[in-house]
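Can't paste images in this forum, so I'm doing it all in text. The chain is below; anyone willing to post the predicted structure tokens underneath?
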Amino acid sequence: MAKRYRNTYSSAEYNTSSNAYAYDHEIYEEDDRRLAERLKAEREAEALRKKSFVHRAKFVVSIFFVFGCCIVTMASNAAVDKQRVTNNSLKDELSQIKNENIILQSKITENTDLSYIEEQAKTRLGMTEPQPYQIYYIDVPKQSYTVQYEAEGEEKKEEFGVTKFFGVVKDMVKPE
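Text version of the structure:
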């Protein structure tokens, strides 16, 4: 540092001319080189800090992304498990209702047995068979509001050809 101030102004050496002192340019060039190197090092360090910050930021974002994906996966698995439990409980309830329906159907079948109904009517209710004078037969016209059922064993055969023709002629000739 002593070199630097070697040619500086001092009261003993006053320059009255228009010429400037001759300074040693190497000192300033060396200072400029050091300054440039220091600035370059600072820029590189700043670039490295920015680069490392970007890497850290990417790392943190990727960790949050993975964490979020894990949360979504766990939530969907929980929803599926909850639905599975609900389905199993509904299946159990359905099987209980089916068993109850089977039991009720057997009771209905048991209670619609005509011999059972007749027995209950005679024993529990004290009913008896009607006497012959209590029975009345009535003729129900064909166009009535009552519903008539055919016996299951009897099936009406449809007639074709000559048999059908004779049946129609027989119905027309038949006295009313």
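The mean pLDDT is 79. Helices lie at 25-111, 114-123, 162-173.
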